[in-house]
Design a protein that fits this description.
heterodimer, A: five-stranded antiparallel β-sheet, B: two-stranded antiparallel sheet
Amino acid sequence: MAELSLQHLDKIYDNKVQAVFDFNMDVKDGELIVLVGPSGCGKSTTLRMVAGLEDISRGHLIMDGKDITQTPPKDRDMAMVFQSYALYGHMTVYENMAFSLTLRKENPNVIHKKVMAAAEILGLVPQLNKKPSQLSGGQRQRVAMGRSIVRSPKLFLFDEPLSNLDAKLRGSTRREILLLHKRLSATMMYVTHDQTEALTLADRIVCMSMGHVQQIGTPLELYDSPANLFVAGFIGLPPMNVFDVRVSDGKLVNDVFSTAILPEEKAKLAPYEGKEITLGVRPENIEPHEDGDIPMSVNLNENLGMNTLVHGHVGNSSVRMTGKFKGWCDYKPGDGLYVRFVKRHFFDKETTNAI
Amino acid sequence: MSKLGKEVTTSISVENMDDAFIKKDRMRFTKNKLSSGLALLALVLDVFYFISLYSSDVGHAERGGYYYNIRIAVSLIYNLLFLLIVFLCSEGVKNYVRSYHYVLIVMGLFQFVRIFIMPWQALHFEVALEGGGTVMAMDNAQFIRVCIYLGVSGLCCVIAAIVGLSKCRTLENHQKAIEQLAGQA
């Protein structure tokens, strides 16, 4: 397994478009790092730079203390799993998994041991004599992973491996990847635009936007203490509700509601007295309450079983708000209720950074 | 029988097995490329035989050529059948299907018999030339050449089948052994 250090990585294409800006990160041995962000944010480009499939314009890539910035992909000892599986259609599962080792002219018995061990881990033994066309999407992706495992690489790279799968299969394959990570204790880098995948898989998440790293931290850190408004909006489903408010005399005030600043919030909001800030509240931190100070008019009631998503507006304004209430609710469009915010996040209006 | 496209029903750990066991176990997932390759070589040699056989046809006083009779049609059809059947057999033996091995043996043995049909007769047939005089329909050099083609082709078929049958037996015994091992586990 390996430790990886990405130092000031930049990617500038020939047409002068910069896709990645000053990417800095240290990946610890056995860690599963998830790069998450919207399409075009530079996460796949970063992964491809690590794999050696894209040149690094500036910066250094260090693996186990050795600079591999200019090392060709084949000599980096990394294995990459692609979204499109990239399996050989005319070969059986066994042959696909054994292929890279066969090219290296390894002993056939050693190859067999490695392939069988990987197939056992991935539950692919019954499929070994089948061709990829006879397998489901999830099984094909497992074959692609098996092909990586047999190589025993220092680093596993996953480029949106679950994007081609349906929702159910995505869930089960995601759990398999997690179990695989636990079992192999391998260092992995995983790219996805799905924040659920990021939250469930990652030891640490790198949230990216427009080529810039927005925040690096554990899933809980990103969820509970987002560094800025982008991270706050991107992580969490449904996304965080945001309201423009003014800090005024111990209260957060806007045109439609006024709510008291809690004692523990006073210190950090003190510099913003009289200024506009952005208030962020996660849907699950909104509670219907008789004594609530925020009026809400309901537009839509979505029952999810254990929870209910209630969409609406703040009072009679056009400011949208979504609450995730516990249990089964049955609000009708037009119903009015009062809610309170259990936990709140504050962001500087100009910089969008967390306060 | 382990066969392409079929589900592998028995799973055992090979981690602590010896090399001989692993070598046999590999056969469950790898094709019999040796037998298949030999069968394809037989096929190629048969094509050479076919080309070589008619290359020396000489003008016949009455018929225009020694080979211009019903036999050339039969020979042509048989060659096409041989190509088709041996190709199918090469795929069958590749996947350890026993029945194809027996067909391959029959086809191989018949290649030897074929030496005594057209080439042998041509070797002993004197063709009267239009301008007078006679010539043998096939000279010794050509006869040896076509005999080599047919003989080696037949030999390839037979060896492919024997090797394949041996591997089939090994694989079947191995399958039984691992089923027992899996049962014990």
